[in-house]
Amino acid sequence: MLAYTIKRILVLIPTLLAASALVFLFIHLIPGDPAAVLLGDSATPEDIAALTRELGLDRPIHVQYLKWLGAVLEGDLGTSIFFQEPVVKVIADGAETSLLLALLTMIWIVLIGIPIGVVSATKHGSWIDQISSGGAMLAASVPTFWLGLYFILIFSVGLGWLPSSGFPSIFDEGGLGNLRYLILPSLTLAAPNAALIIRLVRASMLDVQREDHVRTARAKGLHPVRVAYAHVFRNALIAVAAAFGFTFAALVSEAVVTETVFSLPGVGRLVVQSILRRDYPVIQGVILVIVVLYMVTNLLVDLAYAWLDPRVSLK
């Protein structure tokens, strides 16, 4: 497995270089002048031209890319045009919120998606299966911004149980108690993703139930619960593991709408604000981090296959 891991990491290098070039090119194709946005409407053409030269945006795009790539390889993602701070620091300031939101969302997805999916599969064709399948379809089709607004209306405005916006750091006063600010946003994000896991667990378990080794286990007289969890559920986890891996990575990008609705100081909201400000270094840095996250997640999912199913050969 070590040789396979090293091989996959080496393959990631050219992929990452190609992704970085595409990210840099597409970001610079966004209409608008960062210097004009930064200086405001009162700026003169001379002021804009001077700031453009200072930022190095007047150079050919391939020269800008090579300079940026060289800095990235040294661990420097550049300096934010708007914040005038290192991009690494700007991303780190929002990373706590986004990572905690993604982690809490994954916990909800596991607690909701897997048990309901298992029950739905074991009660296939019953009214329980029909209700859970219908509920999953409904949750998957409801827009997250609509669901988030109704959560705020019900649990914050109506009942007053939970905060409606913002997120103080867990390192500030309140500590882990500040996680209550993320309960509604995480439930909003978890709803459509838990629906996916419910459907996937159900479908995977139904497929496994038709295999010969499951029929053999039942013929031996094993308890139905043992058959369901030891023989069916474990084999169904192989397909579910891939969905969990990509779901966690996607949550960072999917959180854009949720962080905006709940006014969370996360990476998703930072991307939206940076696009409006034409803050190229921040946009490039965030997207590059997300690309790396996807690639690492893909590698971990492949390695998880071998752990869940010894029959899988990694070469």
How do the strands and helices of this protein lay out in sequence?
Elements: H1 2-28, H2 34-39, H3 45-55, H4 61-73, H5 87-122, H6 127-141, H7 144-158, H8 183-209, H9 212-219, H10 224-261, H11 267-277, H12 280-308
Helix pairs in contact: 1-12, 5-6, 5-8, 5-10, 5-12, 6-8, 7-8, 8-10, 9-10, 10-11, 10-12, 11-12
Summarize the structure.
The protein has 12 helices and no strands.
Polypeptide structure, described:
This protein has 315 residues and is mainly alpha-helical. It has 2 domains: 72 residues, no CATH class; 221 residues, MetI-like fold (Orthogonal Bundle), CATH 1.10.3720. 75% of the residues lie in helices and 0% in strands. The protein contains 12 helices and no strands. It is globular and about 85 Å long. The model has no long low-confidence stretch (mean pLDDT 76).
User: What is the CATH top level name of the largest domain?
Assistant: Mainly Alpha
Regarding quaternary structure, what we see is single chain
Helix content: over 70%
Question: Which residue ranges are poorly predicted, with pLDDT under 50 across at least 5 consecutive positions?
Answer: none
What is the straight-line distance between the termini? 8 Å
CATH topology of the largest domain: MetI-like fold
What is the correct CATH architecture of the largest domain? Answer: Orthogonal Bundle
Percentage of β-strand residues:
under 5%
Gyration radius over CA:
24 Å
Write down how many β-strands occur, each being a DSSP E stretch of 2 or more residues.
0
CATH superfamily placement of the largest domain: MetI-like
Shape: globular
Give the helices and strands as they follow along the chain: HHHHHHHHHHHH
Report the structural category.
mainly alpha
Average the pLDDT over all residues and give the rounded result: 76
Total domain units: 2
The number of helices is 12
Give a short account of the largest sheet. Answer: none
